[in-house]
Amino acid sequence: MCVRIEYTMKNKITSHSPTLSPPLSCWIIVILSLCFVNSYDGDFVFDDTEAIVNNDDVRATPLWQIFRNDFWGTKLSHKRSHKSYRPFTILSFRLNFWLRQDLISQDYHLINIILHSVVCLLTFFVYNILMGSDKWNISFYAAALFAVHPIHTEAVSGIVGRAELLCTLFTWLSILLYNYATCTKHSWYISMSGFAICVITAMLCKETGITAVAICAIYDIVIVNKIYPVDIINFILLKDSNKHSNNFFKHKNLLLRLSVLFLIAIILLLLRFTIMGFSVPKFQPVDNPASFVDNMFFRILNYSYIYCLNTWLLICPVWLCFDWSMGCVPLITDYDYRIFVIIIFWLTIGTLIAHTFTSRKDDTSRYTIMGLALLIFPFLPASNIFFNVGFVLAERTLYLPSAGYCLLVAIGLQKLSARFSLPKASLLAYTTLIVLFFARSWMRSSEWRNEKLLFQSALNVCPLNAKVHYNIAKTAADAGNISLAKMEYQEALRLNPNYAQAMNNLGNLLKSDGQLLKAASLFKKAVSLQEDFAAAWMNLGIVQSALKQDKESEASYFKALQYRSNYPDCYYNLGVYYLDRKQHNEALKAWMSATKQKPTHKQAWTNTILLLDDLGRSEEALNVASEAVKFIPDHASVYFNVANILGKKGKYEQAEAQYKLAISKNPTDPIIYANLGVLYHRWNKLSAAEQMYKTALQLKPDLNSARDNLRRLYTKKTRQK
User: Fold this and answer.
1) Angstrom distance (rounded) from CA 452 to CA 474
2) Exposure winner among 36, 480, 524, 529, fewest CB in 10 A?
3) Element (H, E) at 20
4) How far is Cα 8 from Cα 329, in angstroms, rounded to an integer?
5) Quick one: how far is CA 442 from the chain centroid?
């Protein structure tokens, strides 16, 4: 790679901090980047569940189909798709799965940590490109700060944050390749081709990757050609036009490269909008309340306050939360003291930009512009300026912009050290900041190890966030703490009375407790708030069925299937509904639909086999069982039911083989041993039957059927004697 060495002495940034060798600098950066290693053995948490665990694209979907789905596995054409198109990130998850043929969370976490270390090293190299190799010491201090910044915890310790890591990785590679294109006089188009490939790859990891084009354009103008903002202003105002025209074109390939950048940007934007079907995702008010404020003035005011919060998290990352929606950031709808914070924020930003754009032509202004470009451009897709996003504030979106912030801090630190001749004080302040950030990142990454720690940590930051209480309730319910789950769901509904998902989950808990009328009321309210809430419709159908509201129950099931046609669990429950009403053919059709949509639906296969056997259609049952084994070969129940059918047919040897297969799949199920004992009993293999009955009773001493059969066996043995 070509690195510029600048020899201009006037107004040059001089490092007053200790100088380290480049190899030592690299090793220190790598070591510092391991501040997130605390999460290496963490679970799949929060968004990881939907993006990885429950996403068929990570395991079984045909590879070509991945390029037609969004990040969450939903078809891009679906009206509920978030339009987040990141197929290369999904492919990286798929590679993890392929290597182990299983979802091992530790593997995913280790890859994220390694990727962060690689990105930190590349950040150091990119800073060297931007600053010039004679200022690599400043680049080191900026890269070290980037390595330990706590705002990166979500991107590194949250597995779905890999989209940020990969996007940043290829953004840095694109800048390095573009730098080479500006240096070479021959075959520069090869470097530009490599640059375009890296930008496309970055964009297919996360949409933010397209901002690399804008960053490179600023780099070419400000760093390579040393065209200052004041030159551009004077050129536009036609002041001394000949002189400034010469400044613009002293590098003969500048216009050509900028034209290529512009063309690449247009093509990528057109492709991106084509993939989205020229439509934007639709979010609910709870996702991003500021976007639904009718008054334009207050909407801009709320956006500005969110920018303030993002900036504060970069400066002082103490308040870190996995989710900032649902009351975490109250809207500004009237006079509010936060308006003064916004005024101070914009005055500070305006002063910095004005000073940079109007200051004299020196190195500091050029490097500051690059720092601002790295900070601002990657943040624009999350700013709500071009389109509404589905979150209030997301810490992971600051991963790439933080590179600009860290560069600005390092530049500012060196300028202060030079101006006030306090190198030791500056170094002490910087070292203290690194230590504090490292410690904060270490502690924060440990909170991402499991959902209980993660959700509890959010209470200290956003106690008014209904989603925090909702997730705590989910974790408690999964752990069997039903009373805490109910209390937290109720708190979520108190904070957000229109929280349909909380109503649905609380309704499920009440349904399990037998409080059917209360559960039905919650489900009805949930679907009235969100008509296409398929899960709530299905749960309402289950409760109505239990309440003997037959017509209403069937209608609710059909509503669920209307809004989610691919819904195997709903077909399964609809089959149970038909079975209870002895509509056997309809039950079989429903269960077969469930297995068609989800071939691994164990209960649907089992119920189909049992019902066919009960209806005297044993041959059909055996055919279905042979089909089921192809998809669920480790499910003991299939072999067990086949064995029962064969045993009733008097095919003892075949039945015995099936029972033994069932035992090999589930060696702790006493019922299998008890039924195998019955088979031996009928087969007159009394010793083998006795052994099976005793094994069943060892596993379950209160298994009355095995005890009674063992007593009959002893009676039979006595008579034979």
Assistant:
1) 10
2) 480
3) none
4) 48
5) 21
pTM value is 0.84
Tokens of 704: 């009355």
The values of phi and psi at residue 666, to 5°, are -145, 80
Mapped onto helix, strand or coil, the DSSP state of residue 69 is: strand
Which tokens hold the place of 496?
């957000």
DSSP letter for 50, please: I
Please state, in angstroms and rounded to a whole number, the distance separating the CA atoms of residues 11 and 443.
41
Q: Which amino acid, residue 528?
A: S
CA distance 423 to 252: 41
Q: Which two tokens stand for residue 59?
A: 């395991």
**Residues near 53 by Cβ (< 8 Å), separated by ≥ 6?**
44, 103
| 437 to 20, 36, 185, 610: CA distances (angstroms) | 21, 11, 43, 61
Identify which of 376, 351, 353 has the alpha carbon closest to the alpha carbon of residue 365. 353
Nearest residue to 415 via CA among 363, 375, 354, 352:
363
Structure tokens at 294: 């009718």
- Measured between alpha carbons, how far is 501 from 473 in angstroms, rounded to an integer? 12
Q: Are the C-beta atoms of 399 and 166 separated by less than 8 Å?
A: no
Tokens standing for residue 105 = 């969370």
Residue 407 CA to residue 143 CA, distance in Å, equals: 8
What's the sign of the alpha-carbon dihedral 393, 396, 400, 404? positive
The one-letter code for the residue type at 289 is P
Q: Are 107 and 75 in contact (CB under 8 A)?
A: no
- For residue 101, the number of C-alpha atoms closer than 13 Å in the C-beta half-sphere is 0
Locate tokens 């990885």: which residue? Answer: 52
Mean pLDDT by 10 residues, the chain (721 residues): 47 58 90 95 91 90 88 81 89 93 92 97 94 81 96 96 96 94 78 93 94 94 82 65 54 79 92 80 80 89 94 93 86 88 92 75 83 94 85 92 95 81 81 95 94 91 91 92 94 93 95 94 95 94 93 94 92 94 94 94 94 93 93 93 92 93 93 93 90 92 90 80 59
In 77-168, the DSSP E strands lie at none
Contact of 21 with 423, CB cutoff 8 Å: no
Question: Which residue is associated with the tokens 């630190």?
Answer: 413
Between the CA of residue 544 and those of 252, 534, 556, 589, 590, what are the distances in Å?
76, 15, 9, 21, 18
Q: Which of 231, 250, 251, 252 is nearest to 241 (CA)?
A: 231
For 58-86, where are the alpha helices, taking DSSP H only?
63-66
- Distance, in Å, from the CA atom of 215 to the CA atom of 374, rounded to the nearest integer, reads 7
Task: Identify residue 620 by its one-letter amino acid code.
Answer: E
